[in-house]
Design a protein that fits this description.
- The structure holds 2 protein chains of 2 kinds.
- By secondary structure, chain A is mainly α.
- Chain A folds into 2 domains: 232 residues, no CATH class; 109 residues, abc type-2 transporter like fold.
- Chain A contains 13 helices and 4 strands.
- Chain A has a 4-stranded mixed beta sheet, sandwiched between helices.
- The relative contact order of chain B is 0.14.
- In chain B, strand 12 and strand 13 form a beta hairpin.
- Chain B folds into 2 domains: 214 residues, 3-Layer(aba) Sandwich (Rossmann fold), CATH 3.40.50.300; 83 residues, Alpha-Beta Plaits (2-Layer Sandwich).
- Chain B contains 11 helices and 14 strands.
- Classes of the chains: A mainly alpha, B alpha/beta.
- At the A-B interface, helix 1 and helix 7 of A face helix 2 and helix 3 of B.
Chain lengths: 368, 305
């Protein structure tokens, strides 16, 4: 049997016989996509609200109904007086309160106030809820104006919003590409660094080195199986995104595959680089988790927008492969863009792959 | 031309001098033993010979090839068995052997007759994972893997460690059997009793070689009379004998204590003197006999001198 194919066969045996590796390889991607897709969404539905309505006019009732029927809010309680507001928020039962004035009426000539009170102990939820409510109230006012037929100053500018590419603003459109950057990095970099470190830890690396195998053969033999398995993983994540969460795939599937392979090369070479430094599996895992996973998750723009980060963090973020890979997947899947637009990101990833591969080959010693 | 040639090799790790100016050579088809306790520098020397470490000073040559310049060629003709069990625990016996054969561009069939006497013993377990083998069987498998490409030189770093005495005995018989194939073997061990099975041995301590000779040559070099002494209270016996005039050293040796005399000429009156001294110190059940010096006795002498 050929040297190299024997090596790859051995590597597949390691992978298939280790339940932990199999779990990380095949359980984790699916679990992560499902978790991010179902649990960690920033859309809010059926938030409990309280209404304080001393006016009890037809209009205030209509507005309350409009809020509740939107699907975003659920009327938890009608509050008799302002003194009870405090208790309602403290009990945590309501996330937002709508307070009508005693003389509530919508008339073209007399401006009127509505107070929206949010529970900002969770600022993200509070802001989102207030925005929803504002939009619904504005809509309500506009409808009123049309009915009464008055063209007053408040209603003369009408904004018309269209959310392109993701009209329903599904969070999954953001999470599926994000999870892909994460999973591919995790599997490629962490698994390769661990598997090479394991040979060192167990002493088998010593024997491999004292064999006619060239360093490049050892490296390729260790990484090739993971490259294949990671590609399989990417496919699973994309399929889950499309068939379970309704992600579109507008662009070329061939281009998507090629870009995934490119990104995996970057991740694999990072994994090799880590393994040249790490003496055992624990160290390898730690470096990959802290050095690769965390930045990929936090700094690449997957969860937090890069634009609002302090400049030093933006700079760090710009050397993270995921920062460049994320727009590529989004572009191909959601917008259907091609290389004519994505050439820059692709070139950066290509450069990174070459750079890290060269550095790790230089660092891979064929002695102890 | 010697097959293994070590010339004035030194290696240190920071302040620790692991190897200090070592030189020796091993002829073709020989079993050469490096004998010394843990920390003597045996593993460092093996790694230098296996081209895994670079010496600070000196040269190592294998079959005339330089350990630094021609390390790639050396790796083709070398069989190396590190001290730590270094096979793949999650692969079966047969898969391990197949893998190492393929890595060296060989196959099990091609060199089967070389490993047959050894492999036939573990063949009944060929579908068992290597991790589930006993220490002795692991060692046999490791030897098979190191041999499967028919190396010219075999480096065995402490093959007897963690192996039961019976398996160890069998292991040495296998090594003796490999000589007929012209394989040169360098074996390290902390067990002095294994030394007698080598053709030449080097006694190592603290990175230095104290003596190189045949096992017989080493023991005949022991010039002092040696007695094996026993009594009911061994602890006190050793303590007392160390204070006796004419005794250079006394140390535990199995069930007996070995007593090394100061004089270099055997005196027939020594046993009487020892007996009288012990009786006067109140010892009971005294047994005294002449002992033939072993490698261990020589080793202890070298350390103390």
């Amino acid at each position: 049997m050929n040297r190299f194919s024997a090596f790859i066969q051995k590597e597949f045996r390691h992978i298939l016989r280790d339940r932990r590796t199999l779990m990380i390889l095949f359980g984790m991607p699916v679990i992560q996509v499902l978790l991010f897709g179902y649990v960690l969404t920033n859309e809010i539905k059926n938030a409990a609200i309280a209404v304080l309505d001393p006016a009890k006019t037809e209009e205030s009732n209509a507005l309350t109904n409009k809020l509740v029927s939107s699907g975003y809010f659920q009327l938890e309680q009608n509050i008799p007086s302002e003194a009870d507001l405090e208790a309602a928020f403290k009990s945590g039962k309501v996330k937002m309160a709508v307070v009508f004035p005693a003389d509530f009426s919508v008339s073209p000539n007399k401006p009127t106030d509505i107070q929206l009170i949010g529970d900002a102990s969770d600022p993200n939820t509070a802001t989102t809820l207030i925005n929803y409510a504002n939009a619904i109230i504005a809509d309500f006012v506009q409808e009123k104006a049309l009915v009464t037929g008055s063209g007053n100053a408040i209603t003369s500018i009408r904004t018309e919003t269209r959310m392109r590419y993701n009209p329903e603003q599904k969070a999954v459109f953001n999470f599926v590409p994000g999870v892909m950057t994460l999973i591919l990095m995790l599997v490629s970099a962490m698994m390769t660094s661990i598997t090479i470190a394991r040979e060192k830890e167990l002493g088998t690396m010593e024997v491999l080195l004292v064999s006619p195998l060239k360093p490049i053969q050892i490296i390729l033999g260790k990484t090739a199986p993971y490259l294949a398995l990671t590609l399989l993983n990417a496919l699973v994540v994309v399929l889950v995104g499309i068939y379970i969460f309704g992600m579109p795939l507008q662009g070329s599937i061939l281009l998507l595959t090629a870009e995934c392979v490119l990104y995996m090369f970057v991740a694999l070479s990072l994994g090799i680089l880590i393994s040249t430094k790490a003496k055992d599996q624990m160290t390898a895992m730690f470096i990959s988790a802290l050095g690769l996973m965390m930045p990929t998750m936090l700094l690449s723009g997957f969860i937090f927008p890069r634009e609002s980060m302090p400049v030093p963090l933006q700079v760090i973020g710009s050397v993270i492969p995921a920062t460049w890979f994320n727009p590529i997947i989004k572009g191909i899947m959601i917008k259907g863009t091609g290389l004519d637009v994505l050439w820059k990101q692709t070139a950066v990833l290509g450069g990174m792959a070459l750079f890290f591969l060269a550095v790790s080959l230089r660092n891979f010693k064929d002695r102890l | 031309m010697p097959v293994i040639e070590v010339q004035q090799i030194s290696k240190s790790y920071g302040a620790l001098q692991a190897l200090d100016n070592l030189s020796f050579q091993v002829e073709k088809g020989e079993i050469f033993g490096l004998i010394g306790p843990d920390g003597a520098g045996k593993t460092t020397l093996f790694r230098i010979l296996a081209t895994l470490l670079l010496p600070d000073k000196g040269h190592a040559r294998i079959c005339g090839l330089d350990g630094v310049k021609d390390y790639k060629k050396i790796r083709q003709i070398l069989g190396y068995m590190p001290g730590k069990f270094s096979l793949y625990q999650d692969l079966t016996v047969e898969e391990n052997l197949e893998f190492f054969a393929a890595v060296f561009g060989s196959s099990i069939r091609e060199n089967y007759e070389l490993i047959a006497p050894i492999y036939s013993q573990i063949a009944p377990f060929k579908d068992r994972r290597a991790g589930a083998l006993s220490g002795g069987m692991k060692q046999k498998l490791a030897l098979c893997c190191a041999l499967i490409h028919r190396p010219e030189v075999l480096l065995l770093d402490e093959p007897g460690t963690g192996v039961d005495p019976v398996s160890r005995q069998e292991f040495w018989e296998m090594l003796a059997g490999l000589r007929q194939h012209g394989i040169t073997m360098l074996v390290s061990t902390p067990n002095m009793d294994e030394a007698e099975l080598c053709h030449h041995i080097a006694l190592m301590q603290n990175g230095r070689i104290m003596a190189i000779d045949t096992p017989d040559g080493i023991t005949t070099g022991f010039e002092h009379p040696l007695y094996a002494v026993r009594s009911a209270d061994m602890y006190r016996l050793i303590h007392d004998l160390r204070t006796m005039d004419g005794v250079q050293d006394c140390y535990a040796f199995g069930e007996y204590a070995h007593v090394k005399m100061e004089s270099v000429i055997a005196n027939p009156r020594h046993p009487e003197q020892l007996l009288a001294f012990l009786q006067s110190n109140g010892h009971e059940k005294i047994d005294i006999k002449v002992a033939a010096p072993t490698i261990e006795d020589c080793f202890i002498s070298y350390i103390k001198s």
